[in-house]
Design goal:
- With about 450 residues, the protein is α+β, with helices and mostly antiparallel strands.
- The protein has two domains: about 1-210, PmbA/TldD superfamily (PmbA/TldD fold, 2-Layer Sandwich); about 220-450, no CATH class.
- About 20% of the residues lie in helices and about 40% in strands.
- It has helices spanning about 1-10, 70-80, 110-125, 195-210, 225-240, 245-250, 250-255, 310-315, 350-355, 405-410; strands at about 15-30, 35-55, 55-60, 95-100, 130-150, 155-175, 175-185, 220-225, 270-275, 295-300, 300-305, 325, 335, 340, 360-370, 375-385, 390-395, 400, 410-415, 420, 425, 430-435, 435-440, 440-450.
- The strands form five sheets. Strands 1, 2, 3, 4, 5, 6 and 7 form a seven-stranded mixed β-sheet that branches.
- Strand 21 (about 425) and strand 22 (about 430-435) form a beta hairpin.
- Helix 3 packs parallel to helix 4.
- The longest helix has 16 residues, at about 110-125.
- The chain starts with a helix and ends with a strand.
């Protein structure tokens, strides 16, 4: 295959050309209530070509390997028509590599029947729980084999497994409906997913308990976020603002995201790290053949770096972070996060709660949206904090505010970093991309919380 790809890369006449071939095997199992909606095994293969000519990109995808040389010519032709501002990609040394992940219980070696039997047990637990009207279970696993070759002489093979699971319980009492859920994921390792019976019971219990919970009076509170919700906040509200393609093309964002600007206290450090072992957002090489790296985004409260592809790094004159990723051969790589998290501090959760006379403790997440620096997130669970202790459960609440103001108001960072691997990231029509996000518990001195 290597010789075939380099043969297609000869005599193209472009400034840069790269080819990505992909084979993928996918399992999907979905339940809604007592009904099994889907149990499928899918396979897919194809490839794509990118060409750069005088600052313009061309792109062509294909399913038949016999179309490879034609696709190179097509991508080069498109690039000539779309020429833009002059661009010279940052130079790098050619890479030859082969990378394979080896999960302890490889999900690709487990039959569809075995996976379904496991999920049947979880669904039965949820559906048999008191006051539960319905459930929703989404399971997916995949294994991708990616071969990458470029005109600068790089050739990389990677085998990348992935697994994700979402368990949701829906409770009802008359017209009142509440739900609770949990998302999990691994790098293709089924082992941690086989012992979730207690988690399924807890999801059902929380959904039912929410029917009797009281609503919070909306207002500004001291808020403590658990590692899951704090990680989602870090990813959604701040991480996307660190993606250089968004910054480069948005003058307003360029004014906001100036390197050297202070965003928080010296205790605040935010990192994106593709090199962490056994996390869904990790990778050895991105989809441009650049090594995955650790990038400090905020260091000691100051904006220090951002995420780059080779193009955005060249256009902005900053180091390339190896952050160009695509969900499949049908898409070109764009700047994406990997494992994004707030680094731990030295405060225990007990000490964080101790100074709060009245506040709100929020856990997990249900949904949300961002618009530049403004955010709105729905917490999956919420509890009152009274006299330094977590007290009664609340009905779901919504956190809203300005991300920069909120970062400044983080006055305590816990010592209990945890990474959340459930779900996936969406951007530019490419979703879900496997990522991880995380944080210790954090305390925000003043945050607008919407209740009733």
């Amino acid at each position: 295959m290597r010789d075939l790809l380099f043969k297609a890369l000869r005599s193209h006449g472009a400034d840069h050309v790269d080819i990505r071939l992909e084979e993928r095997a996918v399992t999907r199992i979905t339940y809604r209530g007592a009904s099994l909606e889907e149990a499928s095994l899918l396979s897919d293969s194809g490839g794509c070509v990118r060409a750069l000519v005088n600052g313009g990109w061309g792109f062509a995808s294909f399913n038949d390997i016999d179309a490879l040389e034609h696709s190179v010519a097509k991508a080069v032709s498109e690039a000539r028509y779309s020429s833009g501002d002059p661009l010279a990609l940052q130079q790098r040394e050619p890479v030859e590599a082969s990378v394979t992940s080896f999960p302890s219980v490889n999900v690709t070696q487990i039959s569809l029947e075995q996976k379904k039997r496991m999920l049947d047990e979880y669904n039965d637990i949820i559906m048999s729980s008191p006051r539960i009207q319905s459930s929703h279970i989404l399971y997916g696993d995949s294994e991708r084999v990616i071969r990458y070759a470029s005109s600068d002489g790089s050739y990389i093979e990677q085998k990348i497994p992935d697994l994700s699971l979402r368990l949701t319980a829906i409770a009802r009492d008359g017209d009142e409906v509440q739900q609770s859920g949990v998302s999990l994921g691994t790098v293709g390792d089924l082992g941690p997913i086989t012992t979730l019976h207690d988690r399924a019971r807890d999801v059902a219990r929380r959904a039912a308990a929410l029917l009797d919970a009281q609503s919070l009076k909306g207002g500004e509170y001291t808020v403590v976020l658990d590692p899951v919700l704090a990680g989602v906040f870090t990813h959604e509200a701040f991480g996307h603002l660190s993606e250089a393609d968004l910054v480069y093309h948005n003058p307003q964002l360029r004014e906001l995201m100036v390197l050297g600007r202070r965003f928080g206290g010296k205790h605040l450090n935010i990192v994106d790290d593709a090199t962490l072992p056994s996390l869904r957002g990790s990778y050895a090489y991105d989809d441009e053949g650049t090594p995955g790296q650790r990038t400090a985004l905020i260091h000691d409260g100051v904006l220090e770096g951002r995420l780059h592809s080779r193009e955005t790094a060249a256009r902005m004159g900053e180091p390339c972070s190896g952050s160009a990723r695509a969900i499949s051969y049908r898409h070109g790589p764009i700047v994406r996060m990997s494992n994004t998290y707030i680094e731990p501090g030295d405060v225990s959760l007990a000490d964080m709660l101790a100074d709060i006379d009245e506040g709100v403790y929020v856990k997990d997440w249900y949904g949300g949206q961002t618009s530049l620096e403004m955010f709105t997130f729905s917490a999956g669970e919420a509890y009152m904090i009274r006299n330094g202790e977590v007290a009664e459960m609340l009905r779901p609440v919504v956190l809203t505010g300005n991300v920069f103001t909120t970062l400044e108001r983080i006055d305590a960072i816990g010592n209990d970093l945890d990474m959340n691997q459930g779900g996936g990231c969406g951007k530019g029509g490419q979703s879900p991309l496997p990522v991880s996000n995380g944080s210790p518990h954090i305390r925000i001195s003043r945050c607008v919380v919407g209740g009733r």
